[in-house]
Write a structure and sequence with these properties.
Blueprint (H helix, E strand, L loop, with lengths): L1 E5 L8 E5 L2 E10 L5 E7 L2 H9 L1 H18 L7 H6 L1 H6 L2 H10 L4 H6 L4 H5 L3 H4 L9 H15 L6 H9 L22 H15 L17 H18 L5 H20 L3 H4 L13 E5 L5 E5 L6 H12 L6 E6 L4 E6 L4 E9 L8 E8 L2 H15 L14 H13 L1
Antiparallel strand pairs: 1-2, 2-3, 3-4, 5-6, 5-7, 7-8, 8-9, 9-10
Helix pairs in contact: 10-11, 10-13, 11-12, 11-13, 12-13
């Protein structure tokens, strides 16, 4: 038979029940293997009940001290009742100084005390009983989250100023830095909002006119990492120059926000619009092309198809590219020329037929190699080939006739 003897308005604060005639403290903590809350109980005495009824602060301190024992029980283990019972007298019946000394020696759950109104200054000084004089039965979970986030930053040596805090709240990154940044002006103290907007304006000006295209090599929705890094570097440099008092966390948050917004402006554009299309080149514009990957899968395009050759090729790459499929080819069989894109090395080869094979002889090809500057570089050379063939690639060199020379050039570039 179970009877509730005493319960507070907040359902999570431990409840006193009488079970088979025995006074017991019952609390929910942790979860079982099915993610359902676990409930733990241990016996208490009449003197403990009297303090729990009359003294919210001591009740909350006991809860904070017992929770680590519940965590230690895990998803299936038993609560160490002896250890829980051993906390009753020291927490509920001892002088405040002894309670403070106890909390210096035992693990305790800080977030519960903070959520229920603990004075943070006194709590940090180890004056636990005094800190809980301001306790409330109704918890403020967000207060505890903000406190935990600031403690994690403090552990890295980061102390936020008022403007730092306001900016992180504006972007939604004050509590969780891994969330996607957004604009939440309502989360900021109105008195600080104008200053926050001035910082935002600095970042917007630094990233104005920049772009972050897509990188089909990494999937249909992936962004170009090099362009992302360029925007981030520009924003961070401007922020540090104009607002040197901001901490690194804030500066990185602003660059993250600007990069996300720049990328969003192009992410949903058609591939034709997202492509880098240079001016017309000399040579014949392609009318029929074959695209292939490193798995011998082919796709054909011809003039008159609903979409441009650039768009069809990059869609093919987005569909087929994978860690074990990083070499793609565009071939004009009629003209006897093509290009091969080596995504794993940021390089390209252009292949031109010098002599057709006659009488069973193998054709003779001229192969030239060049380095490519990331996704935007690949888009440029693909567009140039589609519009001007191998001749249209002359200005996108230098071109090397030896693979070993290409490798040396690649290593020199990567070492810079």
């Amino acid at each position: 038979m179970r009877e509730v003897v005493f319960a507070r308005t907040s359902g999570w604060i431990p409840t006193v029940i009488r079970e088979d005639g025995v006074l017991t403290l019952m609390l929910a903590a942790g979860a079982d293997a099915n993610h359902d809350p676990r409930t733990f109980t241990f016996p208490i005495g009449d003197a403990h009940l009297a303090v729990i009824r009359e003294d919210l602060a001591r009740h909350l301190l006991l809860w904070s001290a017992v929770l680590p024992l519940c965590d230690a029980a895990g998803t299936r283990g038993r609560l160490d009742e002896d250890a829980a019972v051993a906390l009753l007298d020291p927490v509920l019946l001892s002088p405040s100084a002894d309670v403070d000394a106890l909390f210096e020696r035992i693990p305790w759950d800080r977030s519960r005390l903070v959520a229920h109104g603990a004075d943070l200054f006194l709590l940090e000084r180890g004056q636990h009983c005094a800190a809980m004089r301001s306790a409330t039965e109704t918890p403020d979970g967000r207060r505890a989250q903000e406190y935990s986030a600031d403690r994690r930053r403090a552990g890295r040596g980061v102390v936020l100023g008022p403007l730092d805090t306001a900016i992180l709240k504006f972007t939604g990154q004050h509590l969780h830095g891994a969330t996607i940044p957004r604009r939440l002006p309502e989360a900021v103290d109105p008195a600080l909002l104008p200053e926050v907007l001035r910082v935002i304006a600095t970042a917007e000006q630094a990233s104005s006119g920049m772009r972050i295209g897509r990188d089909p090599r990494r999937g249909e929705r992936a962004t170009d990492k090099r362009e992302w890094d360029r925007v981030a570097e520009a924003v961070e440099a401007a922020m540090r120059g104009a607002h040197p008092g901001l901490v690194d966390d804030t500066v990185r948050t602003m660059s993250f926000l600007m990069c996300s917004e720049v990328a969003d402006r192009t992410r949903n554009l058609p591939v034709e619009d997202d492509a880098v299309v240079p001016g017309e080149h000399s040579g014949a514009r392609k009318t029929r092309l074959t695209f292939t990957d490193d798995k011998d899968v082919a796709k054909r395009w011809q003039q008159g198809d609903p979409r441009s050759a650039d768009a069809e090729f990059w869609e093919f790459v987005g569909d087929r590219s994978a860690p074990d499929n990083e070499v793609f080819t565009i071939e004009d069989e009629t003209m006897g020329e093509g290009i091969q894109l080596h995504f794993y090395a940021d390089s390209i080869a252009r292949v031109t037929t010098v002599h057709e094979g006659v009488g069973g002889a193998e054709p003779e090809y001229r192969v030239e190699y060049g380095l490519v500057d990331g996704t935007s570089g690949y888009r440029t050379v693909v567009s140039a080939f589609v519009r001007g063939g191998c001749a249209g690639l002359d200005q996108h060199g230098p071109w090397m006739s030896d693979a070993a020379e290409l490798e040396h050039a690649r290593r020199r570039r990567d070492a810079q």
